[in-house]
Amino acid sequence: YNRRRWGSDGWTNSMKRMGRQEGAPYANWKTWPNTTHCGRLLLLAEKHSLGDEVIGRMYRACYELGENVSLRETVARIAKEAGVPGGEEYIMSDQGLLELSQCLRNNTCNGKRVKAAPTFGLRVGSAATDFSGAQDYDQWVSILEQCADFAAAAPRDAQ
Prior knowledge:
Layout: H1 2-6, H2 13-21, H3 36-47, H4 51-64, H5 72-82, H6 87-92, H7 97-106, E1 108-109, E2 112-113, E3 119-124, E4 127-132, H8 137-153
Antiparallel strand pairs: 1-2, 3-4
Helix pairs in contact: 3-4, 3-5, 4-5
């Protein structure tokens, strides 16, 4: 996919390098998946506070085990492994397609603004910022330090 679309997959090298440093080596990344069914499962999983569990399992399946998470069967299995109530049946049906489509069209999901995957949002007092894409450790530290500095400088009633 990357070779067809951009001529190479070289743009993923920095992401893979960061991943290896953080213990996520992208050891067996074989497909560039359509994430429709993953997104549907995440919508359902979040309703049961299982979003992080599902994300971890999807990452492992796609990037470490070389599985195709575009396939309903793969995502349904992940739902079962993560313990998402009714997840298998949900993924094998068309439930959640409209909800996902609305989230993507409105750039919001479960009340959160989404610009890319992953998207992170931080709020300190009345100030808020969103940033997207994988961030390395040093970037996270910088972002959090800036938030701490802003919070320390803000009047108490604004925090």
